[in-house]
Amino acid sequence: MSAQTPTAMEQGLQTCHGCGLLSRPEPGVEEGRCPRCDEPLEFRKARSLERTLAYLIAAAVCYIPANLLPVLTTTTAGGSESDTIMQGVVLLWSPTGWPLSIIVLFASIMIPSAKILALIYLVITVKRGSIKNNAQRVRLYRMVEIIGRWSMVDVFVDTFTVSLIQLQPLMSVEPGPGLLFFAAVVVLTMLAVESFDPRLIWDSGDAAEEKEVKREVQHA
Amino acid sequence: MRCPRCDKELWRHKPDSFNRTFALTVAALVLYIIANAVPMLGLHAAGRSAFTTVVGGAHQLWLDGQQIVSVLVLFAAVISPALQISFLFLILLGCRRARPPFWVGMLLRHVEFTRTWSMIEVMLLGVLVALTKIADYATVIPGTALFALFALVALLAAMQSSFDPREVWLRVEWAEEKHRRPAEAKPTSEVTP
């Protein structure tokens, strides 16, 4: 007796990503379109792991210049000064501004790197057919999905700092080359999250679920 | 109810979804227009003052040679929220008909995308940080749009949580011809003389 819960894929059913309709493809057709909303249907997102990994590698590459190159250049009568993201965090640290400084530290430095690492972990465990900690892994995925957007904070901070401080010749602020790379990291990691198919986590089985079923069988 | 496998909350019927969401969407539409039409932030320093709107911020980035980032900011802070609100508005408007037309489904299919990329709440946090930074050099004047944006964030969240896409999907015209319901026969009272 199989200890697996039946899945829609095993039953030949497809869930539509657009409207949630469960449908059976026409005989002979492997993967068609949703009869209700016309979205292309697939049992699992096509080449999910490869695409996620590709976006992650691109994001990891951009992560380096994003943190090393300046995002803002301040020009005053006394000369000009360039700040990277980390220097921005340090500048923000003051008796009143420290909570915001911590938020920016999290949003701009910790979240992007944690996101890349978490997704790489998910891709590797799925690729290796791991059946452990499925529930925790999908929770990790959802957390990455929810928190990810907040990394954009720094892009907005720089946008409004630049557009407000235009007091030539006294003082002006210009965006630096790091900003483009940082924005790229945010967008690429968001695309990576979107390409990953969390259902893959369960496709090789689930240790916790099997244990549960075995226990039930013994009791019966 | 929770999913027995991954413990996520399952679908729940939301009471009076169409009317509540429609009211919230109309309010969000009004606030969105205000938020983008009036100045959001002002700055006062050394006898000079400057004002900016959200679009103004993106425009300045464009002028400074960061065109790609500028488009991204415009997309996340102006275009996506506009799509998010107007899609919901049109969907609910279409649902006022007994049989919602096919394009309602087309829009509904893309609501998730507009939600992912609409980042007004992130932008507001960014504005807050920028204000704190600038406060060291100059006097910052919060504009009307800033308050409108704060209210808009609350409205968008309420709008999304009261919206029940399944209610719409149950009523929408199917894309595939053979699944479409046949044109309903006219009520007998109209046919018989």
DSSP helix fraction of chain A:
40-55%
Task: Give the largest interface pair and sizes.
Answer: A-B, 56 and 54 residues
The N- to C-terminal Cα distance of chain A equals: 14 Å
Quaternary structure state of the chains depicted: heterodimer
Rg result of chain A: 23 Å
Strand order of the main beta sheet of chain B, please? 2-1-3
- The averaged pLDDT of chain B comes out at 83
The coarse silhouette of chain A is elongated
Q: What is the tally of helical segments of chain B? A: 9
Q: Helix/strand-derived class of chain A?
A: alpha+beta
The main sheet of chain A comes to: 4 strands, antiparallel
H/E element string of chain A? EEHEEHHHHEEHHH
Quick one: CATH class of the largest domain in chain A? Mainly Alpha
Q: Extract low-pLDDT stretches of chain B.
A: 183-193
* The CATH architecture of the largest domain in chain A: Up-down Bundle
Number of domains of chain A: 2
How would you characterize the overall build of this protein?
- The complex is a heterodimer of chains A (220) and B (193).
- Chain A is α+β, with helices and mostly antiparallel strands.
- Chain A has two domains: 43 residues, no CATH class; 173 residues, Butyryl-CoA Dehydrogenase, subunit A, domain 3.
- Chain A is built from eight helices and six strands.
- In chain A, strand 3 and strand 4 form a beta hairpin.
- The longest helix of chain A is centred in the middle third of the chain and has 30 residues.
- Chain A is elongated, with a radius of gyration of 23 Å.
- Chain A starts with 13 loop residues before the first strand and ends with a helix.
- Chain B has one domain.
- Chain B has a three-stranded antiparallel beta sheet.
